[in-house]
Amino acid sequence: MQKITPHLWFDSQAEEAANFYVSIFKGSTIGRISRYGEAGAKISGKKQGTAMTVAFELAGQPFMALNGGPVFRFSEAISFMVTCETQQEIDYYWEKLSESGDETAQQCGWLKDKFGVSWQIVPAALGEFMSGDPRRSERVMEALLRMKKLDLELLRRASEGETD
Q1: CA triplet 22, 23, 27: central angle to 5 degrees?
Q2: What is the pTM of this model?
Q3: Residues 6 or more apart in contact with residue 48 via CB below 8 angstroms
Q4: Which tens digit of pLDDT belongs to each residue from 144-164?
Q5: Which of 69, 132, 148, 151 has the most CB atoms around its CB within 10 Å?
Q6: d(CA 21, CA 23)
Q7: Helix 87-97 with 152-159: angle, nearest 10 deg
């Protein structure tokens, strides 16, 4: 059993969100779904039989989603980083997770999905590009700050000192 599991609080979209995420990440599954019974529905104001919690797994990482009502909202203080090997992979996750449009795009590879959850879509090589020589790191940072969706080739070129 996983010792630490991210727990996401939704108003009423926990099951929809879990299904959305599972459809994006290959090899992912929906697990146990607990539904509001009479007592839970009464205290929460949710309809009896609607999803209360949804256990799901994305790329081997377990998650739990809760339909807890409108009390809490997501913020950028917590995000999920998706590490990508290729530009094709970056493009795929960017497109799928920002399904509601480009207005969700934020600087440096961050986006918010249609549920308000923040994601970072980053190349696996970014850490290597940003470490070592301070001049190299500065060039990569300058390139990174001009991007919303990250461009692996432009970051590689900045890392190697190539200019446009």
Answers
A1: 60
A2: 0.90
A3: 35, 36, 37, 38, 41
A4: 999 999 999 999 999 998 865
A5: 151
A6: 5
A7: 130
